[in-house]
């Protein structure tokens, strides 16, 4: 009786099938993913094949790429990446790209897509760098460039550099990455020799940047990070025209000749969107801590 009554209603016998994630159209999944940031998209792509396929849609990644991504791709020796999907391009740009003979690097922040740059000490003009009485280039794996300029002793400290690069519109901060003490390793452990550190507690150092449109940033402070790397901010600058190259000149000086100073490691200059802050950043999964 019950079976006959059930069949008369026209409903199929047996349990009803519940909708599954796999039943959601791929286009709908892709639309939802477009509202997430890249790390969240990567997590969602692990759910199943449908989510993984949807996560590769170009329309998801086009707005997440920086406006100058083609200019950055031009720094790659292999141009085959231009034919790849936008997700593959985004993933490649999150890894550092070296240019200018390996003395400069560019990458994008994996969460925001903001463009970041690093300039090696070897790309800077350092007063006395050719005289080993004053400066030495020492190898270290604590630098992304695997080498830093180490100051033995000098009266007149002057480090100058410049960058000519096409940047997306926005506000950027420029930092000098410095360390007091000579870094090295002994029996596999990190050691830092402080014996030669002197002169930094007497007068402040000056950090400065200028741009081609006349913007000037100046910061004066004491260098006092003994035994630790720190990012010293020179200032900020604004990029208004993303279609033109931005020319930035920067310097670190301590030219009071009443005393000598020594024991300073100059690693690099960092340029990154101001919205990212300065405390911690990473390249290729390796973290670098600022001040």
UniProtKB/TrEMBL annotation:
Pfam families linked: PP2 (PF14299)
Domain F-box intervals: 18-64
PANTHER family linked: F-BOX PROTEIN PP2-A13, F-BOX PROTEIN PP2-A15
Protein name as annotated: F-box protein PP2-A13-like isoform X2
Organism: Salvia divinorum
